[in-house]
Design brief:
It is an enzyme of class 2 (transferase). Its EC number is 2.8.2.23. Keywords: Disulfide bond, Glycoprotein, Golgi apparatus, Membrane, Signal-anchor, Transferase, Transmembrane, Transmembrane helix. InterPro entries: NST/OST (IPR037359), P-loop_NTPase (IPR027417), Sulfotransferase_dom (IPR000863). It is a single chain. This protein has about 375 residues and is an alpha/beta fold. The chain folds into 2 domains: about 100 residues; about 230 residues, Rossmann fold, CATH 3.40.50.300. The chain has 17 helices and 10 strands. The strands form 3 sheets. A 5-stranded parallel beta sheet has the order 3-5-2-6-7. Strands 8-9-10 form a 3-stranded antiparallel beta sheet, with no helix packed on it. Strands 1-4 form a two-stranded antiparallel sheet. It starts with a helix and ends in an 8-residue tail after the last helix. The relative contact order is 0.09. The structure holds 2-acetamido-2-deoxy-beta-D-glucopyranose (4 copies). The site of one 2-acetamido-2-deoxy-beta-D-glucopyranose has 6 residues, from loops.
Length: about 375
């Protein structure tokens, strides 16, 4: 585009000088001749030519310096990076020179090499934060929801890549979106991105998970209905229905279509993943053990991801006030919030026993699929 400007200027200069010059004159002296005969016009053309040349190189130089700058300096300044996404995109897409510059850069955004696909309420956030203690791991901020939401998936892989953090060669980029696990289209879509991607699936004992799910849903409904009441149109709060009422049908059977129960039927979703990916590509993490004693679980994960074992006991301490692990690296500390601070309701032991019995056969199916027994209570 910029070189177009330059050639147009040269052209104009050319046309002008042939029109004033005698035909027998050597055209290579064109500028000199113009300089003598019409000094003002010549000066104007020269200025334009020089200006456009200057602008061309200025733009190229700027973008080269910019891409070096962003890739070396910005890594940690996430806000700034997001603000500059558009500029970064233009640079990424310009075909010449700049792409060569990118090879020198220390950091860049890469598509994830590993994805935490779920399960919701099983500790996906805790798992990601724990892995982030490792110097070779970079994590995407928030949940990207690229593969499960059509409106995001339509934006394409380049959009997805720009949601990823900066990382250097040798580092792994990890993303987590718990609803990937239960969304039918997702396994195929992930395979289309990278057929050898590594997948992490964290699961908890299904009854515990269902209660935790119910607790979160209830909190959300409660918050929503409060908001409605404030607006002046009170509604009968659905949230008042207990876990037991929602889970057990009138005839005493378990309501399998109640979402917190449905999602805990892991085998219903797992088989889809195993139709698309090999078993070796999916690591099943025991979420109950990860919370109780994180280091041995993390050792397995480091091994699976092919990174050096670096996360150790020194990265964790137990806060007795919170009753939960806190994470620390060399520079900072972060405490995980168990169930985001929500207390689980007391569920009738009879219902828990009933649910455990109900899940027992489903758990067996799941264990057969993954070829691993997680020893959940029956
Ligand atoms: C695909 O995933 C594998 C496993 O994480 C990784 O080694 C490889 O670099 C990825 N390929 C691309 C193109 O990102
Ligand atoms: C089962 O759960 C679904 C979803 O929450 C609900 O629509 C349905 O009414 C429940 N069925 C019974 C019999 O409670
Ligand atoms: C533990 O958590 C409590 C509550 O958030 C906090 O006030 C306290 O400083 C923490 N203790 C340690 C040792 O981090
Ligand atoms: C330590 O953790 C903080 C926040 O989790 C992160 O910003 C920082 O880069 C980490 N430092 C190191 C040396 O890994």
């Amino acid at each position: 585009m910029t070189s177009g400007v330059v050639s147009i200027t040269i052209c104009a200069l050319w046309v002008d000088c042939t029109s004033i010059m005698p035909a027998e004159n050597d055209t290579s002296d064109c500028i000199l001749v113009v300089g003598v005969s019409r000094p003002k016009i010549a000066a104007a053309f020269l200025t334009i030519a020089l200006l456009s040349l200057f602008l061309t190189f200025h733009i190229l130089y700027d973008s080269a310096v910019y891409s070096l700058h962003t890739t070396t300096v910005i890594g940690t300044m996430d806000e700034t990076v997001n603000d500059r996404d558009e500029t970064q995109q233009q640079i990424d897409q310009s075909p010449v020179m700049i792409s060569n510059t990118a090879h020198f850069s220390l950091t860049n955004r890469y598509l994830p090499q590993a994805i935490i696909i779920g399960v919701r309420k099983c500790g996906t956030r805790a798992l990601l934060e724990m892995l982030f203690l490792h110097p070779q791991i970079q994590k995407a901020a928030g949940e990207v929801h690229f593969f499960d939401r059509d409106e995001n998936y339509e934006k394409g892989l380049e959009w997805y890549r720009r949601k990823m953090p900066y990382s250097s060669k040798g580092q792994l980029t990890i993303e987590k979106s718990p609803s990937y696990f239960v969304t039918p289209e997702v396994p195929e879509r992930i395979r289309a991105m990278n057929a050898s991607v590594k997948l992490l699936l964290i699961v908890r004992e299904p009854v515990t998970r269902a209660i935790s799910d119910y607790t979160q849903l209830r909190t959300h409904v409660a918050t929503a209905s409060t908001a409605i009441t404030v607006e002046g149109s009170p509604r009968p709060p659905q949230s008042s229905r207990s876990f037991e009422e929602l889970v057990i049908r009138a005839d005493g059977s378990i309501n399998e279509s109640y979402r917190p129960i449905a999602i805990s039927l892991y085998h219903n979703y797992m088989h889809r993943w195993l139709e698309v990916f090999s078993r070796e590509q999916i690591l099943v993490v025991n979420g109950d053990q990860l919370i109780e004693d994180p280091v041995p679980q993390l050792r397995k994960i480091e091994n699976f991801l092919g990174i050096e074992p670096k996360i150790g006991r020194h990265n964790f301490y137990f806060n007795h006030t919170k009753g939960f692990y806190c994470l620390r690296n060399e520079t900072s500390e972060k405490c995980l919030r168990e169930s985001k601070g929500r207390r689980h309701p007391r569920v009738s032991p009879i219902v828990v026993t009933k649910l455990r019995k109900f899940f027992s056969i489903h758990n067996q199916r799941f264990f057969e699929l993954i070829n691993e027994d997680l020893n959940w209570p029956e």
